[in-house]
Amino acid sequence: MKAILIPVETHAAMEAVLATALRLAERFGSYMEGIALGPDLAQIAAADFSFGNVVFDDRTRRELLAEAYNIFAAFMQSHEVARAQGDAQKPCFGWRGDMLVTDEGVGEYGRVFDVIAVGRPAAGIHQPRKSTLESALFESGRPLLIAPPQAPAKLGDCIAIAWNASPESARSVAFAMPLLLAAQDVPVMMVPGTRLAGPDENELVTSLRRHGVPARAILANETPKGPGYAVLETAYELGADLLVKGGYTQSRMRQFIFGGPTSQILAEANLPVFMAH
Q1: Which residues, in sequence order, are CB contacts of 47 under 8 Å at separation 6+?
Q2: What is this structure's pTM?
Q3: How many CB atoms lie under 10 A from the CB of residue 121?
Q4: How far apart (Å, rounded) are the C-alpha atoms in residues 116 and 98?
Q5: Rounded to whole angstroms, how far apart are CA atoms 22 and 155?
Q6: I need a surface site. Which of 1, 3, 35, 79 has the fewest CB within 10 A?
Q7: Number of neighbours of residue 227 by Cβ within 10 angstroms
Q8: Cα–Cα–Cα angle for 244, 201, 157, nearest 5°?
């Protein structure tokens, strides 16, 4: 996991996103690249248009670019992270600052990175957007590192896996293998009530152990609040500092109407989530 993409904008969780990405970068000596995330202008042809009380002209775009860069650079400077120069073995950073990137653009550009770091979505104009997360998840073909509102003190020592035998879960585990191999403890739980046809958690544990992953099968907590909450409560009790889970193994529409583990976890997780679709 040597290349981490970080969409940057002004929202309440931006510091937590940067800090969570840095925790990952510290494990692998990763390169972190920032890009300025703006409103979705894909369908806008005119140079100027009104969005609420804001006019997006060239000057406004330059200001948003500068603001995003200042947030990113100030964080890296305060944590003594160096600019990328050649093949660095320590965390380093770079900036792609020639344009504002839309949510769709994050998904497209993210295809050449190992992981994309985003914030846990929340309601409100100063919160991470769910559209950013979903575009990155569905359009990039890469995994996401979803930061909670407060960054963790550590990442990757105890990694809980939420398994339901789905292709999405299998992809998430495969993408997470560098992390799993470096972990001290990897508890694997079956997501309550969501198992599909395929190997159970014990068979996944056997497979992971062949690679040298310290995996073990556990039972998820029972709770009437739903399977996503059961996964989170179990992960908290274990002291997990990262949760690996497949994203949207049910359709987004079904999860929107009826709820589901992914929707519940995206709404409530207070630990980083590593997710792929």
Answers
A1: 57, 58
A2: 0.90
A3: 17
A4: 19
A5: 10
A6: 79
A7: 22
A8: 40
53, 27 in Cβ contact below 8 A? no
Residues 6+ apart with CB under 8 A from 98: none
CA distance 210 to 204: 10
SS3 238: helix
Strand partners, 3: 31
Residues 155-173: pLDDT tens digits?
999 999 999 999 999 999 9
The CA–CA distances, whole Å, from 90 to 8, 77, 127, 143, 245 equal 22, 14, 30, 22, 28
Helix residue ranges per DSSP H, the chain: 14-28, 58-78, 103-109, 130-139, 167-175, 177-182, 201-210, 227-238, 252-258, 261-268
Q: Please give the structure tokens belonging to residue 153.
A: 């003190």
Domains and CATH numbers, the chain: 3-147 (3.40.50.620), 159-276 (3.40.50.620)
Burial 37-71 (b: 16+ CB within 10 A, else e): bbbbbeeeeeeeeeeeeeebeeeebeebbeebbeb
SS in 3 state form for 15-39?
A: HHHHHHHHHHHHHHCCEEEEEEECC
Taking only the tens place, the pLDDT of each residue in 92-135 is 999 997 889 999 999 999 999 999 999 999 988 789 999 999 99
> Which pair of tokens denotes residue 40?
């979705």
